[in-house]
Amino acid sequence: xxxxxxxxxxxxxxxxxxxxxxxxxxxxxxxxxxxxxxxxxxxxxxxxxxxxxxxxxxxxxxxxxxxxxxxxxxxxxxxxxxxxxxxxxxxxxxxxxxxxxxxxxxxxxxxxxxxxxxxxxxxxxxxxxxxxxxxxxxxxxxxxxxxxxxxxxxxxxxxxxxxxxxxxxxxxxxxxxxxxxxxxxxxxxxxxxxxxxxxxxxxxxxxxxxxxxxxxxxxxxxxxxxxxxxxxxxxxxxxxxxxxxxxxxxxxxxxxxxxxxxxxxxxxxxxxxxxxxxxxxxxxxxxxxxxxxxxxxxxxxxxxxxxxxxxxxxxxxxxxxxxxxxxxxxxxxxxxxxxxxxxxxxxxxxxxxxxxxxxxxxxxxxxxxxxxxxxxxxxxxxxxxxxxxxxxxxxxxxxxxxxxxxxxxxxxxxxxxxxxxxxxxxxxxxxxxxxxxxxxxxxxxxxxxxxxxxxxxxxxxxxxxxxxxxxxxxxxxxxxxxxxxxxxxxxxxxxxxxxxxxxxxxxxxxxxxxxxxxxxxxxxxxxxxxxxxxx
Amino acid sequence: xxxxxxxxxxxxxxxxxxxxxxxxxxxxxxxxxxxxxxxxxxxxxxxxxxxxxxxxxxxxxxxxxxxxxxxxxxxxxxxxxxxxxxxxxxxxxxxxxxxxxxxxxxxxxxxxxxxxxxxxxxxxxxxxxxxxxxxxxxxxxxxxxxxxxxxxxxxxxxxxxxxxxxxxxxxxxxxxxxxxxxxxxxxxxxxxxxxxxxxxxxxxxxxxxxxxxxxxxxxxxxxxxxxxxxxxxxxxxxxxxxxxxxxxxxxxxxxxxxxxxxxxxxxxxxxxxxxxxxxxxxxxxxxxxxxxxxxxxxxxxxxxxxxxxxxxxxxxxxxxxxxxxxxxxxxxxxxxxxxxxxxxxxxxxxxxxxxxxxxxxxxxxxxxxxxxxxxxxxxxxxxxxxxxxxxxxxxxxxxxxxxxxxxxxxxxxxxxxxxxxxxxxxxxxxxxxxxxxxxxxxxxxxxxxxxxxxxxxxxxxxxxxxxxxxxxxxxxxxxxxxxxxxxxxxxxxxxxxxxxxxxxxxxxxxxxxxxxxxxxxxxxxxxxxxxxxxx
Lengths: 535, 535
Prior knowledge:
By secondary structure, the first copy, chain A, is α+β, with helices and mostly antiparallel strands. Among the domains of chain A are: 154-270, Uridine Diphospho-n-acetylenolpyruvylglucosamine Reductase, domain 3 (2-Layer Sandwich), CATH 3.30.465.10; 274-386, Alpha-Beta Plaits, CATH 3.30.70; 398-504, GMP Synthetase, Chain A, domain 3 (2-Layer Sandwich), CATH 3.30.300. Chain A contains 16 helices and 19 strands. Chain A has helices at residues 17-30, 57-60, 67-72, 79-86, 103-116, 172-179, 198-204, 247-251, 285-296, 310-317, 338-350, 376-397, 411-432, 465-482, 498-504, 507-520; strands at 63-64, 96-98, 119-123, 143-147, 154-158, 163-167, 184-185, 221-228, 231-234, 260-267, 269-270, 274-282, 304-309, 324-332, 354-355, 359-361, 400-406, 437-446, 449-459. In chain A, the strands form five sheets. The first copy, chain A, has a five-stranded antiparallel sheet with strand order 5-6-10-8-9. In chain A, strands 12, 13, 14, 15 and 16 form a five-stranded antiparallel sheet that branches. At the A-B interface, strand 8, strand 9, helix 8, helix 11 and strand 19 of A face strand 8, strand 9, helix 8, strand 11 and helix 11 of B.
């Protein structure tokens, strides 16, 4: 397999043939028009300028100045990243890509960069969709992207406490492969699972497998090691503590601005043996939302509780329904879960939902999206879920804007927020593309509110698609912000969400965070411009 | 009812009569010896020096210089506090007790104190057992204790999202009384419930009702308002977010060093309607621990899962058993929970446990300790739980050392930690009192480890009991620290846990926290000496 420098995942997995034709047919059915394919440019044609910095001899072996390497680390994997890659628009490229082998290398690289004022961008899988790894760092003599991929081992497993010490650079599948012989799993399956790393999940507070309870990676952390320019911060392995503000919670979500996460003790699970799942159709969206809220507040804690609205159900699950489809899944390594599913279905029926035949039984091996189950419509949606980023790339090559954004809000504000965001997206699409489709699904639900995830599809114009998307994104971000949502439930802040994050974040907390950053990173070299203004 | 200035709770609820005689009989059975009662001193005999500071006219009405008021705010409610009160040893007394009526008053008080360099001690119920409210603040011209008791209202209830905006100074019972008409409850019942406040729970990361999942108040917080000298930090109401490090998590556990928490949106529950509970006897402690671990890792998530060791079961539940008693409780507002209890009991039987007859049925109104249920032994333990602080005071008057401390550790280290702590306590008691008893119970359990809570009973010597206890406490703290436990699972750090907290806390995090403190409290007046060295 070869990783794509410009797009999602593996080159060999790109959308083509019959899948591409079917995809384009679906799109033209929704948005009639001519679709022209645009090939990605060759690396040589990008004309990257030479690196501005040279590592000291002791670090030279860790550093790559290869143009393909530098190009592949210039952007994340947002729609705007893909399109800019396709257009050969790589204005900010790291001067070097450094690959430390261990914590000592991380320290040495930080020391060198701190001394020289060189910006350092910690890099996991590079799947950021918020400009988190893009070297837009003015005022530094150079930029080094620190790719942790060589630090990819499970170092220790504690089967009694069900926890493991894991290096931050490990990708999802390799992590699960190392845990499998111990009968354990992290069960953290973001959509990016195959192409993102533990360190990236921790740095960005990634959302994962569980729709309830353990929604973010934060809750699965027992302790962390973070190399900061001011020294190594190593928290103690503890199942719980009340000793001052949590050290780990400062580094969770710090997005590479306070230090480089090198390893963590993570809480693990046994693989589920019992499972029950179903999907439920609703004729009315408000009723579907009410049913989902009832389940979220019931204490049943489903592993999966994903409400697709009618458009999402149609486009990605091939289901035609008036209100929406709720995909429910329960799982356990210890006990039967059909009682829980039955009660959840009862709550759905109370709100007019029509369940499909419920299914249960043995579990498959831990894989992302494995639990979306409950009928073939939902199987369709699940495979769609994993293909979405590839399809997004194929559409981008055809100038179709296809992107997502997410938030979370309390239940009392959801209806208003949903309307405001949907209208803002439609209005913005009308302005820049004339038309477009907005979909919504819940990725996670809490007793006090949902995490809605929106999809946008619009016919872009080659050469203008980034500006068109940026216009739409600004409009929806504004709508989210003014409706009381968070600017990000799990995609992180990076550089792209900064204007709205700055308004969401309490002022005194910003001052405290900034002071903490100065204490840990006095030279201000760590991921400048992310979370905080560059100094 | 009259609050005791020197001891726990209400004067009218103090242990006396038959309860006192029975208590003293139990103690002398365990530790033979003469027991002499020592009356608390009168306020006038304390000889408090005059306040060193005078409030500006605009704040005078908020401030009390009454000696009884000042004496009642000089100490928390640890054993060492009670004994020092009984001995009239009040070396550090606040100059004034200020009672703001609203956020504006809080700001004005902070402004005045910041200008003058006067130390400010935020004060909720004053139930700290770690020196958290004791004005041991050298280097300030005066100390003002800011008692939030006037800010005690539920300001807003959102029944849809099940959340309420609540002022920080409200005590447990008054909070629940205000929520009851809405059919909602916070269900946070620390042992101190009646005499502690929401703000105190948040500032100290208090442990509450739930033995699993929502163990700390932290998880019930939707958003917070904190008045800092640098301005008001107001976070957004959100069910979840991935936007940078969590602002709330910086203030949770800040123990009054970063600001004064004035209100919070808290996540609420419906009152449970279904309940199932049981107690299980074990002949062997290691088997009881293994059973508890199996339940903690099962995903059954009992509301109560409290393992009493043999000594704890004997002293506080009147049960004679070789290994221990596990108290189990499940509850739900939505669905039956007997399946869960049955499975938990099966896990107990797998480890040699003998369940009492399980019970279930209707719920009583929300009260602390209500769910310790499952047979009369456990009812005994429950009433004992609520009487413990009063009994501790009665024993203190008779020079009997009776105190608790707690920690949390991973399951793989529990046996070693338990042995080290128990031996350290016994050895220290032999050194200073010749004899004594150590008990252990789990207050909370996690998939990756328990939170053990230890009780110590030893025959103290009048006039030396504080020094004797300090010797024991230092020995057990040292054992906890070197065995890998946390210095506090839910009692907070205050001034008394500082030496061990400083060793537990990662150095770079300490630097970050200190920098955050300087940004928010540039004059260094907020609770000096707590969490961080006084400047």
